[in-house]
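Q: I have 319 residues here and want to know how they pack in 3D. Can you give me a structure?
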Amino acid sequence: MQKIMLIFSRIRNLPRYIFVYLGIMILAVLLLYYPLGMLLINRIDDSTDFTASPQFDIPGGSHTVAMAEALIDREVNRHHWVPNDPFFYPSHLLVRMPAFQRGIIASLSRFAVELSDQIGRARGSSQIDPDLEKTAGLLKYSPNVWIFDFATSLLPTTPSEEQYISAMGLLGKYNDRLAKGQAVFDRRSDNLMEALDRIATDMGSSSAIIDSHIHDYSHTFIDSQASDIFYAVKGRMYSDYLLMRELKRDFADLIKEKQLEGAWDNTLESLREGAKINHFFIFNGTPSSQFIPSHLAVQGFYLLRARTQLKEVSNILLK
């Protein structure tokens, strides 16, 4: 105890300028740590030319499943998963990248459900593929869970990215079995139509969120939620574009038989245009504003156009 008191006594006797310099150094580190860290980590990869590597896109497997694997690998392993970063990470202050990543996972989660319920089984009454069933559950996991989730427990838990990596592994396992003829990827028109209808329903939900936010908050010049909504929808449209591009390859014979190429490509173009929209600032002005743009309204236009075109594709599949 005496040694501790002696140490504190010596610290108190240090010249005051040392504490001033120390405070300045700590402040400088903090001012550099967060801005530079955010700059280095932030990455919104909306390249519509992105393709799955041969590691995932194996001969005899599904191109769409390979794309789902590749997207998870890119966002979690190569870019760093941001939505669950705690406050002492500089990326905790980012808004756009975590929203974009959440949108991608939401799209992949929807695809995984359709894969397990429809495409990945011979008929609706047949057994669900166990790997696909687990995958669908893992991709529904909250994107914001760190190694501790104090809302549920004081004990460590499984973070979001580990759940998604497990889902990626199960998708790879399924695709390997598919390539060997040991799994099902049923290329029936009703399966495809069901999957497209669910994607269209999710687009409608995203459109409703945009519409509600424009209606309630477009009069607010500084709108912190606008960027979050914009980039979450952007991530979803981007992932939907890539998945639909690969579904066109998986269902090539059916699409050719139904003469769907034109309608399908129109849908892809709308999704691509919507996914590529990018602005330094996201404004949520009223749609009729003369001076403040409504970036959400522009995004919503491409979203609704893609949804309408997707419905047209489904109608052709009914014939």
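Q: Anything worth noting?
A: Residues 96 and 231 are 6 Å apart (CA to CA). The longest helix spans residues 189-217.
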